[in-house]
Structure formats: structure tokens, C-alpha cells
Fold each of these.
Amino acid sequence: MTLAGLDRRFGTDVAVLAPAISHSDQVRAVFGGFPAAVVALCGTVGGAPYGMIATSLAVGVSFDPPMALFSVRNDSSTWPVLKRAGRIGVSVLSEGQAVACRQLAAKDADRFAGLDTHATLHGSLFLRDASSWMDCEIAGELPAGDHTVVTFRIHQVGHGPGTPLLYHDGRFPRMRHEHLS
Ligand SMILES: Cc1cc2nc3c(=O)[nH]c(=O)nc-3n(C[C@H](O)[C@H](O)[C@H](O)COP(=O)(O)O)c2cc1C
């Protein structure tokens, strides 16, 4: 459903809130309408690359030490393997990487075909041309409904010139900067 559809079906007034029922159109519309950065979480296990896409990553969870978190589906088949990489490479995708996003989220495909990657000795795997990078170690896991919240200790960071890829309402909108003053 588009946000225009949300306006028509549920109203735009805060006085007409709907109960947050699991899998309801209302909850889907609000979660889908929450703007998010797109990241790839990648690592090597036994010499093979593993990776997945997430929009649930949050940074600034802690500044001292630097920490991030993301939420992974409990039925993910990739995460139980990927988490065995010593470190997880988090690449914040850039605007030119929408195709890489779809490929790394695909179920039955070679997720890394044609992608330009950089592996570290620690087991993390990064995508070149991303807008920034974080080399992460899993710090903890917290159950959260049908997902698990994974906390990361960030060991190394890098920042490229690219503009981050955003995800909103099933699309990739372009970022437009406006200055505060
Ligand atoms: C835009 C987008 C955002 C996603 N965000 C998440 C996420 O935050 N957490 C998650 O577990 N899966 C997320 N996924 C799904 C995974 O990237 C991937 O499709 C899924 O893990 C594939 O299933 P598998 O883990 O069984 O291989 C997202 C997919 C897309 C396309």
C-alpha cells in the first residue's frame, strides 16, 4: 500500500489511531513508511561469502564504546551461518547500489554475483562503493517477538563519498539536503 492509500484508509488525524495488530495493514503501512537506510551485513565463513540486507540497523546505540544494533528475523536461514564469521562487515549502501540491495536480499540466487567486495582477515566482508562501512563484532542478542535484536561492538569504521540509499514505502527515494538556516 502506498502512503496515499494510508491517508485514505486510516485517516491522517492522530485521533483515529488503530490497534497495532500483528500483520495488519495498518502496522505494515507504518513500518513500511518509516524511512530507513539500507545496509548489507556480510562475512566469510569457511571461505564462502554470506550476506543479507537490513533496514533495521541503528547506529549511535552507544558512543563509548561505539555500538550499533539490528533486528533479524528468527526464521532467517542466512543469519545462523553469517553470525559464525568472526566479524560482520556492515556496508551502508549508496544510491547506486539498489541492484546490489535486491540481489543480496534474494532467496534463490548467487547473492554476490558481480559484486565488488573486500574481505578482511577477521572474517568481515564489505561492498566497495558503499557510503560507509563498519567492522562489527556481535556483542549480544536479545529476543524481540519474531525477531532477535543483535547488538554490535564497532571496531573499525570508514566513510566514502557516496550518498546513502534510503528505503521507504517499498521504494528507494532520493535524499534531498536542506540546511537548517
Ligand atoms: C529493503 C529490505 C530490508 C530488509 N531488512 C531486514 C531486516 O532488517 N532484518 C531481517 O532479518 N531481514 C531483512 N530483510 C530480508 C533479508 O535481507 C533477506 O531477504 C532475508 O534474510 C533472506 O532470507 P534468509 O535470511 O533466509 O536468507 C530485508 C530485505 C529488504 C529487501
Amino acid sequence: MHSVGCDINPLVRLIATAKSTPICLSTLDETLNRLSYHHFQVEFQEGEVPDAPIPDIPNLTYWFSEEVIRCLAYLRSWINKIENESIRNFILVAFSETVREVSYTRNGEFKLYRMPAKKLEDFNPDVFGIFSKKLSRNRHGLAAFLEKRKSVEVSVSDANTATGELPMPRPLGGYDLVITSPPYGDSHTTVAYGQFSRLSAEWIGLPNARKVDKLAMGGHHSEETLMDSPVAEAIAEIESVDEKRAQEVSAFYIDLERSISSVAQVLSPNATICYVVGNRRVKKIMLPTDAFIVSAFRQHGCIHKATIVRNIPNKRMPKKNSPSNIVGETSTTMHEENIVICQRTTHI
Ligand SMILES: C[S@@+](CC[C@H](N)C(=O)[O-])C[C@H]1O[C@@H](n2cnc3c(N)ncnc32)[C@H](O)[C@@H]1O
């Protein structure tokens, strides 16, 4: 389909751009062959990774060993010399994932946590090996994409929908289909996308690397309160145990509502809207985000078609969190998610 992807996170946009850009395989292979020739020379002939400028990233040695920093810096300066932007982006995606894997961050976490000290001693990742495996896997992905791809226009937009920005370009007559998974509203606590992408974004030199969680929905406090909303009762209950937390939760739903208003402005007359959401718990109180979305879209002339519940497949999601912040006391976060489907209708 002709489509536009939209996200405030620059790393997300880089990955989305790279994975939706057709690249001529033989042109890509020329660059990949040059790259492996250089790595071969460095690893087996010179024996030492040549010096390259090291990016100015705070606490770099806390997250990477000296050896890993040398290798990443070398790769980074090599990649930066690639003139073809589509190929550079393609290679940066593999680099980004490599950064994550060769860092001292713990696996299976969204938040930036360092490995335990004992593990650090034996952690000696093969940076070039990991990088080239990722490149070859992504090359397979590109080949599969090229086979299936139709002649369509795809673009990526940096619109912040919660501040009223609309994704561009905008089709005449509006979008027929919106598919999105808004954040869960806990970017500071459980699902910290900004933290997750930070090290890669800093190595690549993307803007706002440390600000993503603040820019995201619910990242800022708000003076407003939510009235007559399906989440109002739950927020009042949260407020009775933790006022600050209730404000944070409220700020998220205010942003989500604004974002839905932005989305509603760009719909075609019979557009279908699919929101994938988890009804998370805060202080053991369940927040009915699915009902919130239905109610917000109703205010914009949409009807609720269905809500499909499914188990969360293979997501990097904590199965349990500590609602009271008391060690050992956990409650279930989200094992299942809802796909809320609404439709704009011109008849109501
Ligand atoms: C649950 S993730 C979904 C990611 C991806 N679309 C997917 O389905 O895997 C939520 C995404 O919303 C983005 N986001 C948060 N606030 C936003 C806003 N105000 N405008 C646009 N995107 C936003 C975050 O950066 C994050 O990538």
C-alpha cells in the first residue's frame, strides 16, 4: 500500500526508512564486499583495528569495553563514508543492533541496566562477526522484500501527533487505514523505548538521543485533568494511593486523546482504525485503555467495530512489575493485548 509511518523516535524512523527502501542488490553487494575485504584485512593481516574518531558519548566506558569502542568507532567511520544514503541507512540498521548486542546492557530489558560485574569479565563480543551476521540476515530480508514489494510510495514522518502535528505527506481524501500501537504510558518506568534506543542513537549521531522518553506521549506533566473518561475512575483510585503517579498516568491519556484528535483529522470518510493496546495496571489498578480509545474515537464520528484480544507474542515485555515498588511484590503487567478496531462513518 501507499503508506506513511510516523514516530517521534529518530532510531525508529531510521529503521523504518531502511526497511522500506528498495535497494539494488548488486549495488549493495559491492559495498558489502568492500566492507568484508576491509574487515578481513584488519582482523587477519594488520591484527589491530585502526584508530578512528570516538564519538563524544557520556559514560561510554561504562557501557562498552575499550576494545569494543575501537571496533565500533572504526565501523562507524567506515559507514559514514558511504555516499549512497539508502545503503548507508541499510548498514546503519545492522550497526545499531550490533551496538546493543556488544554493550554491557542486560538482555531482555527495555531499561538501560548494566550486566552484573562478574559477567563483564568474560564478556568479549566479536564485534565484526556480529555485525556481518546482522548484515547478511538483513540482506536476506531485503531480497524477500524486493520480491514481494509492489510499486508503492512509502515515507516516514517525524510528526509528534500528541502536539497536533499531522503526518506528511497526506493523501487527498485522507488515510483509509491507520494501524498503530501507541506507547503504554510508562516510558519512565517499565517500557522505556528512549532508553532502549539511546546507545545506538548516540553512536549513530541521531538527534534527541536522550530525549525520546520525554518527547513521547505522557513524557511531560500536564495541568489538565481528564473528565468523563473511561479511565477517570481508575485514575481517581490511583490518586488515592499515589498522587504523583496519578498525574503521570493522566498526562499520558491527555496526550493519547490529543493524538487521536490529530489522527481523526486525516481519516478518509470510511477509514478503518486499528489500535493495539495493553490494559496495564498501575498500583494494581487496571486502566481500560481499550475503552478509552473507543470513547475518544466516538467523539470524532467513529464507531467501534470490534476488539480482538490476543496473547502478546514474543515481545520484550516484563511479565511482572512491582506495582508498589516493594521488592518481591509483583503483579501481572500485560500478557495480552487488545486490537481495538473502529471505523469512521459518515452516517452518524
Ligand atoms: C508501542 S511502540 C510501537 C512501535 C511500533 N510502531 C510497533 O508497532 O512496533 C509506541 C511508539 O510510539 C512512539 N510515540 C510516542 N509518542 C509519540 C507521539 N507523540 N507521536 C508519534 N509517535 C509517538 C514511540 O516512539 C514508540 O516507538
